[in-house]
Design a protein that fits this description.
four-stranded antiparallel β-sheet; 7 helices; 434 Repressor (Amino-terminal Domain); 9 strands; 251 residues
Length: 251
């Protein structure tokens, strides 16, 4: 039994029509009908699909984790092994007639690989010998910390491309509140160089974080989140489905 058939059967057993379920879950009736046909393409991705299943589960007296497990097995891109994806791609590209590789071809390829490795070692060796005198002339260079990826701003040409923003410094301890006001998002929060939370923040949820000197965040859906820094509401960091990386630092 597919996930869609399971949803339809549970809804009918609960004595609910599609419109009734749509009204109680605030999910479009057309989208529920597609889900019951085992079509989750228009759910907006794995995170939103799982969120819809969590909302539907208590209404139709089903176990939410059971629905999510079925979704992961049948539809989730995240659950597919890289090996399976490679096999799938290779199968679609296998020609009808396969040619046998001769030993001469293998020998030539081996020589080319060995030559490339030897050339790479020479380049690395030359690079090391060039860098050493520069360090000796400028001893203060090593004392300057290198720029972290989280401190570099990369402008985004569109809402689907990740961009990173450097936040202005605030005084004292940094306190940040993240609320999923309009939709769900994946977030990753780092304080003091440690990941304090990495996972999904579903619509309606709120999480608070405190850091002694800084808080760095990654948001996969910045447009649907509200942020409060040290009790002060911040303007939206980006558009819906736009990925944002941002660091808040104390003065």
């Amino acid at each position: 039994m597919s996930l869609g058939e399971f949803l339809r059967g549970a809804r009918e057993s609960a004595g609910l029509g599609i419109d009734d379920l749509a009204e109680r879950t605030s999910i479009r009736a057309g989208l529920i009908r597609e889900m019951e046909n085992n079509n989750f393409i228009h759910c907006g991705g794995d995170t939103y699909a799982r969120g819809h299943l969590r909302n539907i589960a208590p209404i139709i007296s089903a176990d939410a984790q059971t629905l999510i497990d079925l979704y992961n097995q049948e539809h989730s891109i995240e659950q597919r092994l890289i090996h399976d994806m490679l096999v799938e791609n290779n199968v679609s590209k296998i020609p009808t007639e396969r040619k046998t590789i001769s030993w001469k071809t293998l020998a030539i390829a081996s020589v080319v690989v060995l030559a490339a490795i030897a050339g790479g070692q020479v380049i690395i060796s030359n690079s090391k010998s060039t860098v050493t005198p520069m360090d000796a002339v400028s001893p203060t260079a090593s004392a300057t910390p290198s720029a972290k990826p989280s401190d570099i701003s990369s402008p985004s040409p569109s809402a689907t491309v990740s961009r990173e923003v450097v936040a202005p410094a605030v005084s004292g301890e940094v306190t940040l509140t993240i609320s999923a006001a309009r939709g769900s998002s994946k977030i990753d929060v780092v304080t003091g160089g440690k990941h304090v939370y990495k996972g999904s923040l579903f619509q309606g949820d709120t999480k608070n974080f405190t850091g002694p000197t800084s808080i760095s965040v990654y948001l996969s859906n910045a447009g649907d989140l509200d942020l409060t820094l040290n009790g002060e509401d911040l303007a939206p960091l980006g558009a819906r489905n736009e990925e944002i990386r941002k660091t808040f630092r104390s003065k």
